[in-house]
User: Which sequence fits this backbone?
């Protein structure tokens, strides 16, 4: 009996020993920063001197701030259109490349993914190269074709279209991963299912609608979550292309957080923005998975 207890104790100690580094890593690099962000969001903190507890005043200041409200609206709009445009576009490309597979499928897969691995600075330079007034590709083509009204468009300087110009550049670079991800999932559908569908006369986009899309419901849900969370944290591309301007036309929560935390030294306010991003990301993730689960149960 004592020998059995000793073996059980040794096994428990062995498990704890191996789990301890993982828990220490999570606590140090995940839970502690989250707890600190929540704590600092309730403080007046500049990094100089002692922090002062001010309750929810940082949050009240945020929601009365025009830049923050514009950034919040932009990331929500960005998330919506990312799901509506980027995911269907990625599916159409992925399905076309896998269903009509030929010798170009491999190179095209690499080309589509190439934009995803380029540094954001390079993507921003390419975006400027295409859309810039005077020397941009679109401007030059309009000049050759003698279309003066296109030459007069300032894609990044006009507040009415600056957001959509940045979104267009982002769609090009952010769609590469969903394409490759969906191609991998479509290729996992057994060939026998496609053969049986073709025997029943189900082929092409009918096959995509009734066989492929239902099979990809979970991966598509994952992509929707990634698009939403990525939109809420959006920073690099809008900042590199427009610095959030003109005015607040392309500002995001990430840009406002950067300005408050690293330029204006208002750490408490920046932490409050971080808390808002965290809560929204968590809320949308739970909502999307709960919606997918309820639909699965209904079906």
Assistant:
């Amino acid at each position: 009996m004592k020998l059995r207890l000793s073996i059980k104790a040794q096994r428990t100690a062995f498990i704890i020993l191996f789990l301890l580094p993982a828990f220490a890593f999570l606590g140090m690099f995940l839970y502690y920063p989250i707890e600190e962000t929540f704590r600092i969001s309730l403080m007046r903190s500049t990094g100089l001197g002692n922090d002062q507890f001010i309750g929810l005043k940082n949050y009240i200041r945020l929601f009365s701030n025009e830049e923050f409200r514009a950034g919040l609206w932009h990331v929500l709009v960005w998330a919506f259109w990312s799901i509506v445009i980027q995911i269907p576009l990625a599916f159409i490309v992925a399905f076309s490349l896998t269903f009509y597979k030929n010798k170009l499928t491999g190179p095209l897969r690499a080309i589509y993914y190439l934009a995803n691995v380029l540094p954001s600075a390079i993507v921003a330079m390419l975006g400027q190269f295409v859309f810039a007034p005077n020397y941009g590709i679109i401007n030059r083509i309009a000049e050759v074709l003698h279309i003066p009204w296109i030459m007069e468009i300032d894609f990044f300087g006009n507040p009415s279209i600056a957001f959509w110009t940045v979104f267009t550049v982002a769609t090009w670079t952010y769609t590469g991963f969903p394409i490759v991800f969906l191609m991998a999932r479509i290729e996992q559908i057994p060939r026998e299912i496609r053969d049986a569908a073709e025997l029943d006369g189900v082929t092409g986009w009918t096959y995509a609608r009734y066989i492929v899309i239902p099979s990809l419901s979970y991966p598509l849900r994952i992509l929707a979550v990634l698009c939403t969370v990525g939109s809420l944290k959006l920073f690099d591309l809008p900042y590199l292309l427009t610095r959030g301007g003109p005015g607040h036309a392309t500002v995001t929560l990430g840009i406002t957080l950067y300005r408050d935390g690293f330029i204006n030294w208002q750490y408490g306010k920046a932490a409050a923005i971080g808390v808002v991003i965290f809560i929204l990301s968590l809320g949308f993730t739970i909502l999307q998975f709960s919606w997918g689960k309820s639909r699965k149960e209904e079906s």
About this structure: Residues 45 and 51 are 5 Å apart (CA to CA). The mean pLDDT is 87. The beta strands are 43-44, 52-53. The chain is about 75% helix and 0% strand.
